[in-house]
Amino acid sequence: LAKRAITAYMDSNGDKLHLTNVVDTLNGVRGALVFLDSPQAAEIVTRASAFVSRNILEKGTLIDQGQLELFADALSSLEFYLEGLLSANVNVDILKLAVHSLNNLHV
Is the dihedral of CA 27, 102, 73, 70 positive or negative? Predict the structure, then answer.
């Protein structure tokens, strides 16, 4: 949902309406990760949510292509991690890419 919403936001030239549920959705994912005792992944989701809140919703500026790619890398890494949780094939190292991407976004 979050990746699709960000894409719709970019395609619409910054219409924030596409992002109205992203922060709440990410907070729900964070809560599930806390429940599943995945604190590192939960922190990554917290940072991703902060990026959407502060850098997109509050500032009101359209993010550039580089920021979009970094954010997409962070979300994709989380997605792979979550798929690993479901299949009992967890790859914690994939979270390093998410952390790196969010660090580059200064979140």
Answer: positive
Other CB atoms within 10 Å distance of the CB of residue 17? 9
Find the helix packing angle between 2-11 and 22-35, rounded to 10°: 160
62 within 8 A of 38, measured Cβ to Cβ: no
Average pLDDT, consecutive stretches of 10 residues, N- to C-terminus, the chain (107 residues): 85 88 94 94 97 89 88 93 89 94 96
Per the structure block, which two tokens stand in for 20? 């109205």
| 3 SS3 class | helix
The predicted model scores a pTM of 0.89
